[in-house]
Amino acid sequence: MKSHCLTPPSTVTKEISYEELKALVGKSPKLILIDVRSEEEVAKGHIPGSINIPLSTVEGALKMDPDEFKVRYGVTKPQLDAPELVFHCQIGKRGAMATTKAHELGYVNARNYAGAYSEWSKKEGK
Fold first, then answer.
1. Where are the alpha helices (DSSP H) in the chain?
2. Does 1 reside within a domain?
3. What secondary structure letter does DSSP report for 75?
4. Residue 5: its pLDDT value, please?
5. DSSP three-state, residue 47
6. Looking at residue 58, which CATH number applies to its domain?
7. DSSP state of 107
8. Is 51 exposed, middle or buried (0-12, 13-18, 19+ CB in 10 A)?
9. pLDDT digits (tens, 9 = 90+) for 12-34
10. Nearest Cα to 79, choosing from 98, 60, 66?
11. Cβ atoms of 93 and 66 closer than 8 Å
């Protein structure tokens, strides 16, 4: 178990592993996977089913009216208690920042895929 002695519990980012995410991708209708990388990064490859919401726009997106979110991103806006809300980026840092922001906005189950796209692409052979 990781030690978070110096970090207050409210700032500890919940994480999901490659294996846990792999079990959900394409199988769980509840999975909301948000890729916070730039459009240019996403164009080079992405995790299937992910929605691109660049980090600089995450807070605004999560504060959007549900109808506006649906029009903008093509999916239903996650509920505050969405059970499988996962953020990721290229190496983990931006995904952690987005997850922290989501927690601050009340998304209690938000998690960061810390392995990020770099781990996914290596394990998936892409």
1. 18-24, 39-43, 55-63, 66-73, 93-104, 116-124
2. no
3. S
4. 44
5. coil
6. 3.40.250.10
7. -
8. middle
9. 679 999 999 999 998 999 999 99
10. 66
11. no
| Catalytically annotated residue among 33, 85, 89, 96 | 89
Closest to 86 in 3D by CA, of 76, 96, 77, 72: 96
Ranges of the chain with pLDDT below 70: 1-12
Residue 2 lies in a domain: no
Tokens of 42: 């996403």
89 is catalytic: yes
In a domain, 4, yes or no: no
Domain count, the chain: 1
Q: Flag whether 75 is in a domain.
A: yes
Range of the domain at 20: 15-124
